[in-house]
Amino acid sequence: MDEKDLQKRKVILSGIQPSGKLHIGNLAGAIRNWVELQDSYDCYFTVVDLHAITVRQEPADLRKTTYELAAMLIACGLDPDKCTIFIQSHVAEHSQLAWILNCFTPIGELSRMTQFKDKSQSHADNINAGLFTYPVLQAADILLYQADLVPVGNDQKQHLELTRNIAERFNNTYSQTFVVPEPYIPPVGARIMNLQEPTKKMSKSEENEKATIYIVDSDEQIRNKIKRSVTDSGNEVVFSDDKPGIANLMSLYSLATGRTFKEIEHEFQGKGYGEFKSAVADAVADYINPIRTRFDKIIKDKAYLEKVLKDGSEKAHRIAYKTLRKVYKKIGFVQF
What we know:
With about 325 residues, the protein is mainly alpha-helical. The protein has helices spanning about 5-10, 25-35, 50, 60-75, 95-100, 105-110, 115-120, 130-145, 155-175, 220-225, 245-255, 260-265, 275-300, 300-330; strands spanning about 10-15, 40-45, 85, 150, 180-185. The protein has a three-stranded parallel sheet. A two-stranded parallel ribbon has the order 4-5. Helix 5 (about 95-100) crosses helix 8.
């Protein structure tokens, strides 16, 4: 696709932290939508390693999970020929713009960010300045690429609103510089819950590994986790708020097979939980298997993976540099 075609398409940016292993909930909630978006939008997907270090990281682990996350995104269907995949720290403009935007962001606005309060409680031994200001870095991530749309969940709506405030404040001060991004609310997909506590979302940071289906899990591990998952009283396979365990398994089965909840209820009418669990286990294992197989191949081909990331960072840098130079000129920095 040539530059003119891309210019006609709206820009979408989204990022994901290299912390923990990707699980099937990440695939259902975000990555499947990204795969569909790359055909209709000019998409930038970044592994946000700068954001990751607001929490202490083991250097070797951070390098490993960064590579693995990039490989997994490709394995899940992101196509480097259709979208731009890059590592955040490879594009210096992210940090450079973040400093400038820090100087245009009142402390009062940052202090109202609920995620800072939540993370401060979770990491009370390391309440650092980066943890406080990372929503400004997030704003820089978005504004550098003149993103029209940003896929957001409920936990990020407040940060996108801050980004919009920062962009509008800068534009009002120095004339039109940034596109003011809009939220992109993806179609409602399967909401995957914890297998052992189905009233909680599935999480990368869950200590109980039986509760989470990781995309790198073997077929046997997937089947065992599902067969040992928590169910509810009774024996009917119906989607209901008072049956969170069965509803979660139905969401997994729907994700893996494409069947609706009504179709699943009809398929398993008169059948017990044991038969249903076995069917879910087989369907999910079959669904994950080709993704894991692609991942195993990509992660072993370091030359290919590094080329994808190098090409992605070079393209991202070209776009980001244009925006940063415009900002430098507007605020009065000397340029040659």
